[in-house]
Amino acid sequence: MIRLAGLTKRYGKFTAVDGIDLEIPSGTLFGLLGPNGAGKTTTLRMIAGILQPTAGTVQVGGADIVREPLRAKARLGYIPDRPFVYDKLTGAEFLRFVAALWGHEGPVIERRIDELLGLFELGPWKDELTESYSHGMRQKLIISSALVHRPQVIVVDEPMVGLDPKGARLLKDLFREFVDRGGTVLMSTHTLEIAETMCDRMAIVHRGRIAASGTMEELRAQTASEGLTLEELFLKLTGQAAPPTLSGLFDG
Amino acid sequence: MAEPTADPIPADLRAMTRAERRTAGRREPGVSVLLAPKWRSALARLRQERSGTRTKLLLLLAVGSVFWAAIFGIAWRVLRHAKQVPELGALLPGKMLALMLLAFGSILLLSNLITALSTFFLARDLDLLVAAPVDWLRLYLAKLLETTVHSSWMVALLALPVFTAYGIVLDGGPLFPLVVLGAVVPFLVLPAVVGSAATLLLVNIFPARRAKDILGIVSIGAVGVVVVVLRIVRPEQLVRPEGYRNLLDFLALLRAPTSPWLPTEWAASMVMNWLRHVADPLPIALLWTTAGAFVVFGAVLHRRLYGLGYTRSHEGAERVVRRPLRGVVLRFLGWLTPEVRELVLKDMRLFFRDSTQWSQLILLAVLVLVYVFNIRMLPLFSGERVPFLLVTAISFLNLGLAGFVLSAVAARFVFPAVSLEGRQLWLLRSSPLDLRRLLWSKYWTGTLPLLVLAVALTASTNYLLRVSAFMMWLGVGTIVLFTLASSALALGLGALYPQYDTENAAQIPTSFGGLVFMMTSITLLVLILVIEARPVLGFLQAGTPEERPVGELAVSLGAVAVICLGTTWGAIRLGLRKVAQAG
After folding, report:
1. pTM attached to this predicted model
2. What is the number of CB-based contacts under 8 A between chain A and chain B?
3. Residues in B 556-575 with any Cβ partner in A closer than 8 A
4. Does pLDDT of A233 surpass 90?
5. A106 interfaces chain B, CB cutoff of 8 Å
6. The sheet that has A63-64: what strands, in order across it?
7. I need a labelling partner for B36 at 20 to 30 A (CA). Which of A17, A66, B455, B554 fits?
8. Rounded to whole angstroms, what are the CA distances from A202 to A186, A191, A197, A218?
């Protein structure tokens, strides 16, 4: 469903994403892991069609995001790491707007909006301006907006930020149901436990390249790290040392 | 497009009939859909304003009406006067309109350059729109319309009373508003297309984030040059026909178009042809076909360059930090408490590291240059001797001009102070820093440079006017008091009408609140001049020292001091209250 070939992004002399090749089939929940500044968000933004690659291609359901942007984007739902909501729109108005951007309107969408807002327990705030929403409520609204037009692929950057335990659990179930019905989810996360419990497959990105990818077992096999936890594997692959001694920080 | 299969909300899907699915089929989102959040947000804001405090609305209505009526009154008088000038009555209004539209055109070009940078490249909703399957042409048209409205509403508001005066004085008839609309729409669209296209090119040409910096400097510098050139042309010669060798020369100048290749001239011709009952379709054709062609050209450019430009505009920020004069500044601010010193330093650093802010100093320099040039060019000391009283009256009116310049500068540099704290306000609010200290620190950071400018402007222009010591001291004293008050008004109203979510600092002064500040500041200025006018005149006309109305002068100066200091205190209090609520 998603195919990246030689995907590269350079900012002047700095290479943020360095020739990534990746294929994510339908019905997969794929995790993109990596330390800060590894190139995860840049990769996701290129898949969403926000940034143009310096080199390489992105295909979503067979449509090239640069050459056939409308076809490719029509299949996508994108949840950014720093979500934007219009402060002076109500939750329902915002979802109606996003649905219209994807070309949907009418009573079906109204029902869809009600259903999504109900699912995320935002129903009572449906007609309140989003400026009065809490951080978590905004995050739930953004997730709803990515689902309102029934995408085939969801690209999500750090999905759990701001969600309470109930919301986080709901999102996990939602993504699992989505994937079981043939959808594709590509998510980036720092939280290794989430990746381990949710993702079917994952890739560890380091300095713009994929250091390893596959299922948990495949990752262990690739790196000859039998018995290691994902955290240990991650630190090994990204060359990050154990945290420094912190006692000095709080002395005197 | 294939029907999506993956949907984690099964209940809705199961309940949906085939027919419903068909009606829910994908439809291209139009320009109106893309703009819907903007007008809905504007409506929501308006509703909030209406349900909120009435004082703000009443203040706005009062100041707005006075201002609008004043512009109309001046335009009406000037036009009536011009109409009655023998031989020239038929030509002068047209020339004046062409010049006015030329000035508006220059303002619009700058305004569009600044706005297009925000709407096309910096706006926070762009990620959402760019990630959506939205056709490039619709995105371009929506953003162009947004740019046009944002950058032109103030000019349109100012032009409205002038056009109304034209319609009334020159008998435009009931269809005149439609003619004006027909001229104004393409007149507003053209600079928007040019500004957007120039922004697009610059963002593509210059490397990454620097494009934004360079764009700001280039655009403001270019407008500065335009203003200086316009000034050097000396349009005031139009109202001094004696400067021409003979009447024929003057008539020839009036008949010739100011700038035959500029749309401003076509718009003026279109309006004037209607008023003179001349049937000439050429200006209409030129105006509309050019506007149409430019929109097509802009769209083609957008299609080819926008994707790349948008990507480039998000590339890495500047990493090198320059710290010129750091030691000097630190020594200079050494007497302040650490928290206030750091606050002042932070404001200065942010100002000088953000090109959208410091590049406005170029405009300020241009403004001052034009101002001093105007005073120098006054024909007071060439040829026939001008009476002392007239020179003094001009120096008194000079106070008004200096006050206007200072208000404009305060709008640029002091008004945005609270808005620029924006999303970082939580940090200041959660720190043990007293809000009063925060606001007063911001006040003095903005006011001290403004005071230096105020005194320098007034003293130097009074020196050029060779005024008496009395007028010099009166001018400097009044302008100092006015500057204190105007700066406080800028800060207070900036807090009352904050633009916390702005993407471009240069847009803050041109916001609605910025307009309210300018109107309030100018109203205060007029009030001061009215209070001082009578006693000052009496003082200057007095034959002997005994005849001087010292008492009346002292009372009026005292009243001015009370008004200015009261305004300062009240405006800061207003700002304080608003900032306290914002946290």
Report:
1. 0.72
2. 146
3. none
4. no
5. yes
6. A14-24, A2-11, A55-60, A63-64
7. A66
8. 9, 13, 11, 10
